[in-house]
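WARN retry 2 of 3 for item q-0093 after timeout on previous attempt; input resubmitted unchanged.
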Amino acid sequence: MEFISGESRNQIILLPDSIEDYVEDNNSVRVIDAYIDSLDLAALGFSRPQPRQTGRPMYDPKDLLKLYVYGYMNRVRSSRRLETETKRNLEVMWLLGVLSPDHKTIAAFRHENGAALKQVFRDFVGVCVKLGLYGKELVAIDGSKFKAVNSKDRNFSEAKLRDRIDRLETHIEEYLKELEDEDGKEKTGNEKTVAEIQGIVTELSERKERYETYVEELERTGESQKSLTDEDSRLMAANGKMEVCYNVQTAVDAKNKVVVEFEVTNEGNDKNQITPMAEGTKTVLGMDAVVVVADTGYDSVQDIVESMTLGIEPHIGGTDFDICVPVDEPPPAEVVSHKDGRCVYVTGRNIVLCPMGKTLYPGFYKKATEQGVFYNREACKNCTCKCTTEGRGRRHQVPMTEADFSKSCNDADLFVKQMRIKPDKGIIRQRKSIVEHPFGTIKRSMDAGYCLTRGLRNVAGEFSLTFLAYNVKRVINILGCKNLMAYLAG
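OK item q-0093 returned
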C-alpha cells in the first residue's frame, strides 16, 4: 500500500478557482471582515479615511485595520511579519483581496492612528454591551508591566547620572595626568600616543557634558528618570527584577472576563489608579455605581476615599482600617474608637481628618520630600490613636507641590462620619480568576508580553489593538462566529 500523496506541483490549477473555498463559514477571519466593514472610520478619527483625488492610489485603512486585528489575534504583530503573511497566508489573502502592502505602509498606519485605534476598541466594547456580555455587577482592576523598547543601560536616574559623571571625571583626571607625564617616560612602543590620549579625553568630556545636560533636564522638568530610546518609558519592578516598562491598567467584567477599559501609564506602581479606571468603567457601561476589586498594590487611602465619593465601592486586598470623612449633615453616631486608622486629606478644605475625627491643619512644606505637613498638637497630645508620625506633636504628610501648598484652610461647619474600610473576602477571592485571565492570554497565547512601539501615545494604540483582538477572540469563544456575524449583519 502506498503513502497518501499530494497533487503535482506542475499541474495548471494548484488552488481552487476561488479563495473563498479555503475560508470556512465559521472562520474568525469572517468576523473581522464583517465588523470592520461596519465601522465609520472618519467618525472614529482615522487619518485619510477617504481616497485622495490626485496622486498615487492609497490603501483602504479598513484593509490595514483588518490586517492588524487578524495579526494580533494570531501572534503576528510585527509590520514585516504581517507583510510576509499577506504573501503566503490564504486567510489574509481572502481578507485583503490578495493585496500586499509594504511593511512601511503597515507600520505607518499604526503610528498615525493611535487615538483612533482606542476608539475602535471602545466601539467593540459597545457591541459587547448590546450583546449583554457584561454583568455590570463586579469589575476587577489590575495592572501588569510590559517591557518597553528601551534597555536599562539607556535609562538614567539622577543618582545614576551623577555616579557616571563622577566616574568620568576620575577617568579624565587619570588621562590628563598620563598626558602630563608622557614627556618624561621612556618609550617602549606600547603606550598610547599623545593624539590618542587627547582623543579619549575629548570623548569622555563630551559624554560628561551630555550626562550633565540630562541632570539639568531632570531638575528642570521634575522627572525622576530619563530614557533615551523611548522617552516615556520608566524603570520599574517587573517579575521580580527591574526593567524599563510600561504599566498597563485594565478593568475586566466578572461575567465573561471581557475587558471593559484599559489605560497605559508609566507609573511604577498601581496606587491612585482605582478612581480613573472605575470612572472610565462607569462611563463605558453607563452605570451610576460600580463594585470593584483590586489587590494590595492599590491600597491608597486618598484614592479609596475619592472613589467612594464617586459611587464606587472598592474592595482592596489587605485593607482593614477606619477613616473619617466630611459629610453634609451630622451623622447619627459620634466618632468612636478604631482599629488601624488612616488619615484623610480633604482637598476642598485643605485639612486632614484623623481616624478619631480630629482636624489637622496645614503647618509647613518639606521641600526634601515634596510634602505638605499637617498637625494639631492639642488634639494629638492625649490621643491613643497614634495614627500620625512622631515629631514635635504628631504630623501627617501629604504629597503635593510647593505651589499647591497653602496655610489657608476651612473647618467651619464640619460634620464628620467614621467609616470602616473592610473588603468582602468572597469578592477578594474572585479577583484572580477575573482579571488575570486576560493578561495571561495576552502574554502567552497572543505573544504580546512586550511593546513594539515607542512613546506613550503609540504604545496606547498598540494595546488598543491587543485588547480589541483579545475581546474579539473572547466573544467568538462565547457566542461562536456565526452568531456574532448574524448580530453584526443585523
